[in-house]
What we know:
This protein is 36% helix and 15% strand. The chain is built from 11 helices and 11 strands. The chain has helices at residues 2-16, 35-40, 59-67, 90-93, 102-112, 123-141, 192-207, 229-240, 275-287, 306-311, 343-361, and strands at 44-47, 55-57, 73-74, 150-155, 163-168, 178-184, 216-221, 245-251, 266-269, 294-297, 316-320. The strands form 2 sheets. Strands 4-5-7-6-8-11-9-10 form an 8-stranded mixed sheet, with helices on both faces. Strands 2-1-3 form a 3-stranded antiparallel sheet. Helix 7 (192-207) links the parallel strand 6 and strand 7 (216-221). It is globular, with a radius of gyration of 23 Å.
Amino acid sequence: MIASHLALLVLALASWTSALPAQPDVADAALFANTGARKAAGYRLISISDTEPPTWKNLPEILALYHTHTRFIDVTDQDLETVPVKPSRSAVITPLLPSISIPSMTKWLTTFTTFKNRYYKSPTGKQSADWLYAQAQSLAALADKTKLKVTVSKFAHEFVQFSVIVRVEAAAGGSGPITVLSAHQDSADDDGSGSVTIFETLRVLIQGNYVPKTPLEFHWYAAEEAGLLGSQKVVADYKRRSVAVNGAFQLDMTGYTSSDPSKQVIGIATDNVDATLQNFVKQLTLIHNNSTRTINTACGYGCSDHASWNRAGYPAAFLFETAFEESNPRIHSANDKIEYVNWKHVEKFARVAVAYAVEMSS
């Protein structure tokens, strides 16, 4: 029965082939600038392996797969964007990395930590969020309006501190799942270091005129220390609106490393993350930071905002400043101060964040 149905399908496909265009050449590149144009021209996005990226094929080429007994999956209309098989955008990323500025990050975090505290229910917690929002607006204003559309918004909560979201729209005609980079508002290392890491990433991309093919978003969450309150509300809203997300990358604590050289590593979280996305971020860490070592380490239940994305079924990734058992002993105290931040270590995470943003949105 299966064979007879397959034979009928093969005959049907064969009857359509004469009316289909051939695989596009360079002259036809504009026609295939987006998924809609490819589909309209009769092409389908076909995957034949978990280790190779899918390719666009017309019906004669799909028919050839039947003839050669090659199994495949048509992923053209698949809602979930796949993580790239391997990093492939170094030509775009490498020229951006020298723009990462330790003085710029130091200045930013110095001001951010001058607020008496960033507690989500306190007046200064709101003031620090107001300052962050204003900084994001000022940065967005520097974008080349002929190339980039950058919007800054407040995500209100039941408490006075709000979350801040910056969105970099896709190139004209582009769409697709969003790529998220996130951190939370709090003290110098936990997590002012992550906050400044993604802010510097945004600055480098805007001033480098990087135009994503799919939207990029940068999130600074309120009230992480109170039980992931801010990120849970943001993620719930995205889930309710059926927003497609191809990856959410959280940076929480990037500014401490051990004085013992044997323990100077970047921690690769093994829990509450998507294994494929996390492995991809690990590859970026090693590619764009020469001689840096990594260590697999468990984060624990609800340890940071990536857990909100993971619980909601979105792919999430998370890097940490070291192995969790070796983490900064000064956090959650008045001694979590900027003078203890290791800026060369923060720079490593900024390099990964820039690479992630480009790879996932291009």
